[in-house]
Automatic annotation (TrEMBL):
The keyword Iron does not apply. It holds the Pfam family Pyr_redox_3. This is Flavin-containing monooxygenase. Residues 1-25 are annotated as: Disordered. The lineage of its organism: Eukaryota, Fungi, Dikarya, Basidiomycota, Agaricomycotina. The keyword Oxidoreductase applies. SUPFAM superfamilies: FAD/NAD(P)-binding domain. It comes from the Eukaryota. One of its GO terms (molecular function) is monooxygenase activity. Keywords: Oxidoreductase.
Length: 648
């Protein structure tokens, strides 16, 4: 097994509590994780329930580290000056009504001083059910922690937490301190989801069809929430709201639910495995393929909306939206497929339109008007057979570019990929299981537990762990990566050498989860051009900075999607859009900007992301809306982050 040294740590690993920093404590094989976790949680509950911040942290009070619940920052051993080990507390709504990551004991202290007493934490209970018992985990030879799960209550909610304790060497003995705590709001007291035994148990004889017609028509009522977009993000938010008894309507510009996937290029297929992609309340059947074809997913989304009785108006376009500054009520004008219009008055507006509502980004290149061939974006591309006998150039080298190039090559079409910058490549066969397989696989933990485990890692920790995993993935993918390098394809190690997931959260681009396209490039079935940047279009193709030229009949831009705020401008106009924060990317705490909560104006939310993210965070939007409706909070209680700066 690969070993790791703290002599020259990679910057991505600075947040990892490796054993060297902890004083190289010896952890005996007979450690009792449940006993240790139980003792720690008992003290935490005692201090937390009395609002005793010093009792929770006891930071640098004295040298008696055994009185401290959290790892003393910068402390590893009573005998030698240590390297600093930051501690973390990530909270999702439970303590802050926000998405916050607090790093370092001074920052955690400030947070607790502001919130601990008001939250009124109580009934803290260690979870020992099957699959939730405390464990001693050793993800790497120099990383060891006790992981445990717990439940708790606050003044208004029910929470679920995850803790990780690390062994700290003090005067020759190892004591266990918290390196990370994760707290998540699960439910609101008195307002549980209407599931299982709480669902409607009355029979319905001959009335259901008319009831559903009235529900969907909204003839004599206004929805509490208007959701724009019936892709996975909009459907999942509506499903969560319905389970909480909140009336919502989804408006979708396409003719059918699922058309946002159904109308994409024919070769489109998910590269996320099925275990990561389940939807709330209705997981995919066990017969489902591991990688879902786009059109199959489209049909599933359509059936999902029907099975869960979600209210959807298709062929309906949002014309504009304004907000009354006195009442905060939104007025949203929509136009239906029959030409009729309606203005809805709602308290909550959820934008679930994806990255820019599906508008592709096309870079500005000089001379495009003189090109005599065809140009299109991957969002407009349908199938390779549209260009039989043509010479095609694909601009881009990530997922869509690979998929479309392979489709062209399979149909005998001359296709060249132009790679503008390096790409992070990992295989779905070997690399992806190493990356997310421990949580999302056929025999892994239940999806709701996997989601919480995944969410419990702040970006600083996740980047450190993934930096190590990326190196291991590169070893198992070595043959393909070396093959790509041999033909000149440029590869990298991902965001700050930390691979795929940080790339997703920061850029939502820059990677390819290899399902076979890399071998096409290695075998030169897909030609490659990347020795110079594009200077301009010519009548017959492209000219590059080094003077070379590439002829083409068709040029397809696989250059990603544009700034999501473009879609906001079409709905709200420039004045409001200019005041809204950036959507996507990371803020200084490592939280995603502008999504899963109020984006700025009261009652305006943005929901977007892949299937896994939407499954988890859709409930958080629904809980916030339900809490507002029940008068439990006003959405702005503690420390909304300044989201004007993106971490590079």
């Amino acid at each position: 097994m690969q070993t790791y040294s703290n002599a020259t740590p990679h910057p991505a690993e600075t947040g990892l509590p490796n054993l060297t920093k902890l004083g190289n404590p010896k952890v005996p094989d007979n450690v009792d994780p449940q006993k240790i976790a139980s003792a720690w949680l008992k003290e935490f509950a005692k201090a937390g329930s009395t609002g005793d911040v010093d009792g929770v942290l006891s930071l640098f009070v004295d040298s008696d580290y055994q009185s401290d619940l959290f790892l003393p920052e910068g402390s590893t051993s009573a005998h030698s000056p240590p390297d600093a080990i930051p501690v973390f507390w990530r909270d999702i709504l439970a303590f802050t009504w926000d998405f916050r990551t607090f790093e370092g004991t001074p920052v955690i202290r400030e947070f607790l001083q502001a919130r601990l007493a008001e939250v009124n934490i109580s009934n803290v209970q260690l979870q020992t059910d099957a699959g939730l018992t405390p464990t001693l985990d050793k993800p790497f030879p120099d990383l060891t922690w006790i992981q445990f799960f717990f439940k708790f209550e606050t003044e208004v909610g029910l929470g679920f937490g995850i803790g990780r304790l690390v062994p700290l060497l003090v005067t020759g003995d190892a004591i266990w301190k918290a390196h990370l705590l994760f707290t998540n709001l699960e439910d609101l007291k008195g307002f549980p989801e209407q599931l299982g035994s709480r669902r409607n148990g009355l029979p319905n004889h001959g009335k259901w069809e008319e009831q559903r017609r009235k529900e969907v028509a909204f003839e004599d009522r206004e929805p509490t929430v208007l959701v724009v977009g019936a892709g996975q993000s909009g459907l999942e938010v509506a499903a969560r709201l319905k389970a909480l008894g909140v009336d919502s309507l989804i408006v979708e510009k396409n003719e059918k639910v699922g058309d946002n996937w159904r109308t994409r290029y024919d070769a489109l297929c998910l590269h996320d495995p099925v275990w990561y992609d389940h939807l709330p309340y209705l997981p995919f059947p066990s017969t489902w393929p591991v990688f879902t074809p786009a059109k199959k997913l489209a049909n599933w989304l359509e059936s999902y909306a029907e099975a869960l009785e979600l209210n959807v108006w298709t062929s309906t376009t949002v014309l504009n939206a304004t907000q009354d500054p006195q009442t905060n009520v939104w007025s949203i004008k929509v136009k239906k497929g029959d030409g009729s219009e309606r203005v809805f008055k709602v308290k909550h507006l959820v934008l679930a339109i994806g990255f820019l509502g599906g508008r592709g980004y096309t870079p500005t290149i000089a001379g495009i008007d003189k090109f005599k061939g065809q140009t299109l974006h991957s969002m407009e591309h349908k199938k390779a057979t549209d260009h039989l006998g043509k010479k095609v150039v694909i601009i881009g080298a990530c997922t869509s570019a690979h998929d479309i190039c392979v489709d062209y090559a399979d149909h005998g079409i001359d296709v060249t990929m132009f790679q503008r910058s390096s790409t992070y490549v990992l295989s779905t066969k070997r690399g992806v299981p190493m990356l997310i397989g421990p949580l999302y696989n056929e025999n892994g933990p239940p999806t709701h537990i996997a989601d919480r485990l995944s969410a419990s890692f702040p970006i600083t920790l996740l980047s450190g762990i993934h930096h190590r995993v990326v190196k291991l993935v590169a070893e198992v993918d070595k043959e393909v990566l070396e093959g790509l390098k041999s033909v000149g394809f440029r590869v990298n190690m991902g965001y700050k050498d930390a691979g795929l997931l940080p790339l997703v959260w920061t850029k939502a681009s820059g990677y390819y989860m290899d399902v076979g396209g890399s071998q096409y490039i290695i075998d030169k079935k897909i030609k490659l051009k990347n020795d110079s940047q594009i200077q301009e279009f010519t009548e017959t193709g492209l000219k590059f900075d080094n003077g070379s030229e590439l002829s083409a009949d068709v040029i397809v831009f696989c250059t990603g999607l544009a700034d999501p705020k473009y879609a906001l401008r079409t709905i709200f106009g420039d004045e409001l859009a200019d005041r809204l924060p950036q959507v996507w990317g990371l803020n200084q705490e490592g939280e995603i900007k502008g999504v899963f909560k109020e984006i700025g104006p009261k009652g305006l939310y943005v929901m977007m992301g892949n299937l896994g993210a939407c499954r988890f965070y859709s409930k958080h939007i629904a809980l916030q809306i339900k809490a507002v409706e029940e008068g439990l909070f006003d959405g702005r209680r503690y420390g909304r982050q300044d989201e004007t700066t993106v971490v590079p």
